[in-house]
Amino acid sequence: MFRPVVLAGGRGTRLWPASRTLYPKQFQQLMGEGSMLQQTLGRLTGLDHDPACVVCNEVHRFLVAEQLQAAAWSDSEILLEPAARDTAPAIALAALAAQDDGADPLLLVLPADHVIADIAAFQRTLAVVLRLADSGKLVTFGIVPTGPETGYGYIQRGEASAGGYRISAFVEKPDAPTANRYVTSGEYFWNSGMFAFRASRYLEELARFEPAILSACQAAFAGATRDLGFCRVDAEAFARCPAKSVDYAVMERTDAAVVVPLDAGWSDIGSWSALWSAGKKDVDGNVLQGDVVVDGCSNSLVRADSRLVVALGVNDLVIVETKDAVLVACRSEIQRIKQLVARLKAQGRAEPDTHREVSRPWGKYDSVDIGARHQVKRITVKPGGKISLQMHHHRAEHWVVVAGTAEVTNGDRKYLVTENESTFIPIGCVHSLENVGVIPLELIEVQSGSYLGEDDIVRLEDRYGRH
Q1: Which of 90, 110, 201, 339 is the 20 to 30 A CA-CA neighbour of 313?
Q2: Cβ distance 386 to 435 under 8 Å?
Q3: pLDDT at residue 344, rounded to an integer
C-alpha cells in the first residue's frame, strides 16, 4: 500500500497562451483523454493504494475538486498551499497530513503535469521503487534519456543497489556538448521529479538538513482548518517557510538517496516543443490539434481551441490559438516564451493570468464582448450551482436565459426565469441566481455601468466559502 501525493501547484508559463495562472496546464487536456491531473492518477489504476493527497494553490481548489470527482477520485484529500514555497515544503505538508491519523504510509510523489506513454512499464518500475522505499531509501525515478536534452536536469548514477543505483550527483540543466557527453557515457538519467519514501523518513531527513522548513510546516499544519472538503494550513505560519525544492533540501544531501531507471515514454511537457516531440505526427511531422487545416507545412505544431486555423507553407513553427490570444513562434525559439509572458504581465495585461473563459465553482463564464461601459458574458451554471448573494456599486445587469431554469433573488423578491425570459438587476440591488433544474443553465448577461471589474462584487453569502 502507498499514498499517492500529487503536486498540482505549477503555473505552466511555457505553455502560454493555453496555460494561464488561473487555469494552468495540469488542469487541461493536452494529450490523450482527460486532464493531465486526471491522467496522473489514472496511471495508478489497478494498484493497491490509499486515497490520494493533492497539493494545490488555493485559487485552483474548485478545479481540483471538480476534476477529482469526474475521475472517481473524490475520496482524495485536497491540501491547499497559501503561497508557493516549492516542492520540499509541499511534500512536508503531505507527509504531515499522511501521519495525522497515526499512520506512516509510503508516499508516491508525482507532479501533475507529466506524460507517460507506457503505463505498464511505469507500474513495473514503481514496484521496484516502492520496495526500495519500504527498506528506508529515498527513491527517485531516473528517466532513461532518448537524446542530449538541455531542458532537463540530470542524475549521475553510482553503484548498483537492489534494482536501483546510489546517486553520485544531481546536475543542473547542461549545455548541448555537456548533455551529449552525459548521454554518451550511459551514466546519467534525466531528473523526473517523481519520488517515493516513507513519510517519517522524509520528515526525518528534512529535520536533519532543513529544520526551518519542517518547523514552519509543522506550525502551519497544526493550525489547519477544514471546510468543504479542503484542508487549509495556517497561512501566517506557512509564509515563514523557506522556499526550496526537494532536490536541494533533501535528495542532494541525504546518504539514503537511490535512483531507479524508468523507460516508459516520459515527458514533462514543459514547452510547446516538448508537446510536439511527444505528440502524434502526420506524414510531414506536424502535430495538429483542433480545427486545423495545413498545406505544405512540416515539423510544426498547430493548435486551435475556438476557431479554424489554416497554415500554408510554413515549417518548424508553433501556432497556438485561444479565444483571446494567438502565439506564432519558431520551435527553436519557444524556450523564450517565459520571458515574453513576464513582459506581457509587466504591461498590466490580463492574458498571462486569465482566459476569456473563466471557471467558477458554480460553472463558468465567457466574456464575449467588452466596451468602455458594457460587457457581455455567456454564463453556464451547473445543476445545483448557485452564484453568490452579492451586489455591485457601479454596474447593472440584464440576464437573458437561453436554456434551463434560474431561480433569481432580486432584492426582496425571489422568482423563476426560464428559457427566452429575462430579468433586470439594478445597480446596488442585492441579487443571486441558482440553477434549480437538472440541465446546465445558460444565460447571456449584459452589464452596463461606469466600472465593470470583477472586484466590484460585494459577496454577502456564498455556499462555496469564498470571501
Answers
A1: 339
A2: yes
A3: 96
Is it the case that residue 467 has pLDDT exceeding 80?
no
Residue 353 and residue 328: Cα distance in Å, rounded?
A: 19
pLDDT of residue 60: 94
- How far is it, in rounded angstroms, from Cα 248 to Cα 189? 17
> Does the pTM of the predicted model rise above 0.85?
yes
User: Rounded CA gap, 225 and 21, in Å?
Assistant: 25
Q: What are the phi and psi torsion angles at 295 (to 5°)?
A: -145, 120
Task: Provide the angle, in degrees to the nearest 10, between the axes of the packed helices 211-222 and 199-209.
Answer: 130
Provide the grid cell at 382: 451547473
Quickly list DSSP for 97-115. Answer: HHTTTS---EEEEEETT-E
Helix (H) / strand (E) containing 214: helix 211-222
pLDDT band of 200, cuts 50, 70, 90? very high
Strand partners, 80: 56, 232
Q: Which of 103, 112, 101, 98 is nearest to 11 (CA)?
A: 112
Tell me, what DSSP letter sits at residue 135? T
Other Cβ atoms less than 10 A from the Cβ of 94: the count is 27
- From the CB of residue 309, how many other CB atoms can be counted at a distance below 10 Å? 20
pLDDT at 270: 87
Tell me how far apart the alpha carbons of residues 276 and 413 are, in angstroms, rounded to a whole number.
55
- What's the CA gap between 300 and 286, in Å, rounded? 5
Grid cell in block for residue 411: 432584492
Measured in degrees and rounded to the nearest 5, phi and psi for residue 454 equal: -65, -20
Q: Which of 46, 110, 20 is nearest to 344 (CA)?
A: 20
List phi, psi (to 5°) of 236.
Answer: -65, -45
153 is written with which cell numbers?
A: 536536469
Asked whether the CA dihedral 196, 199, 205, 209 is positive or negative, the reply is positive
Looking at residue 335, its pLDDT comes to 87
Alpha carbon distance 109, 408 (integer Å):
45
**Residue 227: which pLDDT band, with cuts at 50, 70 and 90?**
confident
